[in-house]
Design a protein that fits this description.
Layout: E1 2-8, H1 29-42, E2 52-59, H2 67-80, E3 83-93, H3 102-108, E4 113-119, H4 123-129, H5 135-147, E5 153-159, H6 166-178, E6 183-188, H7 196-202, H8 211-227, E7 231-234, E8 237-239, H9 246-252, E9 256-260, E10 265-267, E11 271-275, H10 279-288, E12 293-297, H11 300-311, E13 318-319, H12 320-329, H13 339-344, E14 348-351, E15 354-357, H14 359-362, H15 365-371
Parallel strand pairs: 1-2, 1-9, 2-3, 3-4, 4-5, 5-6
Antiparallel strand pairs: 6-8, 7-8, 10-11, 11-12, 13-15, 14-15
The structure holds iron/sulfur cluster (SF4).
Length: 377
């Protein structure tokens, strides 16, 4: 089982919190698209003949592409790889791109999952974030996707936004439930360097909620979604049974994937590879044959640390025997932590040899994992 990821590095405008790789200039569009086709061809053996179960268009804003450009990329995957019947094909799209009739075109070309970047159902939040859509467009986009028969829908929401009260956050959650979407990805706002939000924060112009309000918004989210039958399965991801993202779940369980496009990452079980995060250089290097990526072999330490980092973020948790075996491969005779201590602090539970974090633990999942990392000396 393997996946193919496309990073489409263009956006209509820069959201004030975002540090992903994208450009608002479309000058390189043709060159980048052509280079992505070349990269697919050049790396057709990367997945070692493993069947492709998932194709994911992320970005950037993949829904800015014409349907013909998306179709060409999907066809190229079928041409170069062994694709299973009915693969999960996800397209990230912004609400303003989901115009009348477009979801039907997506469905016709095999796209069977849409990830809609709503972020908030409040116009004041959307304006502050510099999103290109309105709250009304957000609601309309979900309806359009549903009318086109794409019921495998996920929406993104952000909590701990400036001036987002608990009541306003609950209204955002309830609006999502009213729309009957079976999957949500909900992220805590983080202030990334070199973003407009970071500048405003250091100038004292961004009123961020205190940490305890951010934590309460997260716990309220879990409660409200769980009581509607939408369960938490990864720190930021919630789904009705059967609607969990196959693509992301595969990442978290160590499945191999090929990433195509500027800044895209790939993993083949032994090494990680990441493409240059620059549209001009990506297109030029693919044309002139200069390597367009960097590569790193995973050490035994990396494999143990990654197992902890990805596993502890999921509700399935980690298998303690697997963690011990990875530890031994890294020349450590025992785990560098006592699982029982986490249980005593109410941050984890152990069932049938698996350790998973409780809600209290999930609030600081990354910190817990990094406390237990083994550092190569
Ligand atoms: S649309 Fe998405 S990728 Fe583009 S700037 Fe906004 S958040 Fe970032």
């Amino acid at each position: 089982m393997a996946g193919v990821y496309f990073h489409i590095p263009f956006c209509r405008q820069a959201c004030h919190y975002c540090d992903f790789h994208f450009s608002t200039s479309l000058k390189t569009r043709e060159r980048v698209m052509s280079a992505m086709h070349s990269e697919l061809q050049l790396r057709k053996d990367y997945l070692n003949q493993q069947p492709v179960h998932t194709i994911y268009f992320g970005g950037g804003t993949p829904s800015m592409l014409d349907t013909s450009e998306l179709k060409d990329l999907i066809n190229a995957v079928y041409a170069h790889f062994d694709v299973v019947e009915q693969p999960e094909i996800t397209l990230e799209c912004n609400p303003d791109d989901l115009r009348e009739g477009i979801a039907e075109e997506y469905a016709a070309m095999g796209i069977n999952r849409l990830s809609i970047g709503i972020q908030s159902f409040r116009d004041e939040d959307l304006k502050r974030m510099n999103r290109a859509h309105s709250a009304a467009e957000a609601v309309a986009s979900v309806h359009r996707a549903q009318q086109a028969g794409i019921d495998n829908l996920t929406i993104d929401l952000i909590y701990a936004l400036p001036e987002l009260s608990m009541d306003a956050w609950i209204r955002n959650i309830d609006q999502a439930l009213e729309l009957n979407v079976p999957h949500l990805s909900c992220y805590c706002l983080t202030i990334e360097e070199h973003t407009a939000f970071a500048k405003w924060k250091s100038a004292g112009k961004l009123r961020l909620p205190p940490d305890d309000l951010a934590a309460s918004q997260y716990l309220t989210l879990i409660d409200r979604l769980e009581s509607a039958g939408i369960h938490l399965y990864e720190v930021s991801n919630f789904a009705r049974k059967g609607y969990e993202s196959k693509h992301n779940s595969a990442y978290w369980s160590g499945t191999h994937y090929l990433g195509i496009g500027p800044s895209a990452h790939s993993f083949d079980g032994q090494s990680r590879q990441w493409n240059v995060a620059n549209n001009v250089r990506y297109a030029a290097q693919l044309t002139d044959g200069t390597p367009w990526f960097e590569r790193e072999e995973l050490s035994a330490f990396d494999r143990y640390n990654e197992y902890l980092l990805t596993g502890l973020r999921t509700t399935a948790g980690i298998d303690l025997e697997t963690a011990r075996a990875l530890c031994r491969e890294a020349s450590h005779t025992a785990l560098p932590f006592d699982p029982k201590e986490l249980v005593e602090h109410g941050e984890a539970e152990i069932h049938e040899g698996r350790l998973n974090l409780t809600r209290k633990g999930l609030l600081r999942a990354d910190a817990i994992a990094s406390e237990f990392f083994i550092i190569e000396s």
